[in-house]
Amino acid sequence: MKKEYYEVKNCKLAGTSYGEVYKKAWRIYLEEKMKSKRRVYLRSAYFNKEKIFLDIFWKHLKQKNKGDRERRLKFYYCALTLLKRSKNAPVIKYNQRMKFYRFYGKEMSTGDKFVVQIKESTRGNKYLMSIFPEK
User: Mapping DSSP to helix (H, G, I), strand (E, B) and coil, where does residue 62 land?
Assistant: First the structure.
């Protein structure tokens, strides 16, 4: 399946250290959290405004080393923007019980490409699993 890149404008989080980037990303997360009463989610354009839960991403992120966390968090705002607005078809991968969607994005000002991975459970719930720059 062909990758379609969704172009996102000026959204890469700036910072020279993990602490700086983390503070900015966490502030964005808290803004989303204030919009819901229970679990933090956003609504996706591709999935016909279905909810994508954001809390599992932070657990996954804690498993990485600091350098990798910083590299991934720089694209956090880009990823949320992509999920909210993009209707580009993702690349779909299947696991034993799970279904994974990979959305591809491109930050317009720098040209950096990134991948956003969504996991769909057997119940049909969708979770933001991972964000990482494309090699």
Answer: coil
